[in-house]
């Protein structure tokens, strides 16, 4: 059943000055299969002005998040969802946060998750 295992990772930029979720917005999402093959990766256009790109943590700079290279969040979410089978097992570090950022629904977009 290895073909059911996927990992998603969402990177965020700071759009506020606190460490709260409300001060962050997704700026990149990647999906890999159980063998580490990248199935989907895109930069995401921030919906609010960026306070910090958090480059030491994200590897992302201002030039990455331009309209020519990045998608609006709803489009990125839609494209991610089309690549996930409904029986997917999602694996990742703090995976619940990534699931929430990408608005993935249990039973519709994935079956279960394992938080590392």
Summarize the amount of helix as a percent range: 10-25%
* Rg calc: 14 Å
Oligomer: single chain
Main beta sheet: 6 strands, mixed
Side by side, the strands of the main sheet go: 4-3-2-1-5-6
Average pLDDT level: 95
Helix-strand makeup class: alpha/beta
Secondary structure: number of strands: 6
What portion of the residues fall into strands of 2 or more residues?
Answer: 25-35%
Layout: helices, strands, pairs:
Layout: E1 5-14, E2 24-33, E3 38-44, H1 55-58, E4 70-71, H2 73-82, E5 89-92, H3 95-101, E6 112-115
Characterization of the model:
With 116 residues, the chain is α/β, with parallel strands linked by helices. It contains 3 helices and 6 strands. The protein has helices at 55-58, 73-82, 95-101; strands at residues 5-14, 24-33, 38-44, 70-71, 89-92, 112-115. Strands 4-3-2-1-5-6 form a 6-stranded mixed beta sheet. A hairpin with a 4-residue loop joins β2 and β3. It is globular. The two termini are 19 Å apart. The model has no long low-confidence stretch (mean pLDDT 95).
């Amino acid at each position: 059943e290895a073909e059911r295992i996927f990992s998603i990772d969402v990177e965020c930029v700071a759009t506020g000055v606190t460490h709260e979720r409300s001060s962050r917005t997704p700026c990149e999402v990647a999906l890999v299969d159980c063998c580490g093959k990248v199935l989907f990766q895109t930069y995401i256009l921030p919906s609010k002005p960026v306070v910090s790109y958090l480059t030491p943590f994200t590897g992302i700079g201002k030039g990455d998040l331009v309209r020519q290279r990045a998608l609006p969040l709803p489009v990125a979410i839609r494209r991610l969802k089309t690549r996930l089978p409904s029986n997917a097992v999602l694996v990742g570090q703090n995976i619940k946060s990534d699931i929430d950022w990408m608005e993935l629904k249990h039973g519709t977009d994935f079956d279960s998750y394992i938080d590392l």
